[in-house]
Amino acid sequence: MSRRPDILDEFTADHRAVTDLLDRIDAAPAGGAERAELVTRLTDLLFAHCAAEEEHLFPVVQHDVPDGGALVFGSIHDHLAIGQYLADLQALGPAHPAFDTLLRGLADTLRRHLRGEEEQLFPAARKALPATARTALGDRLRAERAELETPAD
Question: How much of the chain, in percent, has pLDDT values that exceed 90?
């Protein structure tokens, strides 16, 4: 019997999608439309991902995980920095001379952030939260995402 993915599986899959987009951005020609499109896709993914973590995962981590408040604080701090990088990149556009420098800063911050969540926050949450609770949170997240993807009538 296979188990349904829990919330940590969902967020880990998001992390893989972020890493994939970063790799594709690195491979895209500098200053080009492809790179700009990929950064826009990364922005959309990250804003949705960060909002979902802050809504679904962080409250239970803060409440149920020892030192959860500190873990959540660090992740929120990173989310704010990532959001600022994304806003700056969107404002400049790929042809601007500072774009690649900002993009490298974003990539470094993201890779460190993803590693930190996967090595510290997620294992602490997995240990403290029962599997049924993690699965229920994953179900709720998937349902909300499916509802957002369904076109309105």
Answer: 83
Cβ contact 38:28 at 8 Å: yes
pLDDT digits (tens, 9 = 90+) for 31-55: 888 998 999 999 999 999 999 999 9
Residue 8 neighbours by CB under 8 Å, 6+ apart: 57, 122, 125, 126, 134, 138
**Which positions ≥6 away from 109 have C-beta within 8 Å?**
78, 81, 82, 85
Q: How far apart are CA 89 and CA 87, in angstroms?
A: 5
Query: With contact defined as beta carbons under 8 Å apart, do 121 and 75 qualify?
Result: yes
Contact (Cβ atoms closer than 8 angstroms) between residue 121 and residue 54 = no
Domain that holds residue 81: 7-136
Residues 8, 122 contacting (CB under 8 angstroms): yes
* CB-count exposure of residue 81 (10 Å: 0-12, 13-18, 19+): middle
CATH of the domain at 98: 1.20.120.520
Q: pTM for the full model?
A: 0.90
Instruction: Record the tokens describing residue 92, joined without a space.
Output: 């400049």
CA 30 to chain centre: 24
Total domains present in the chain: 1
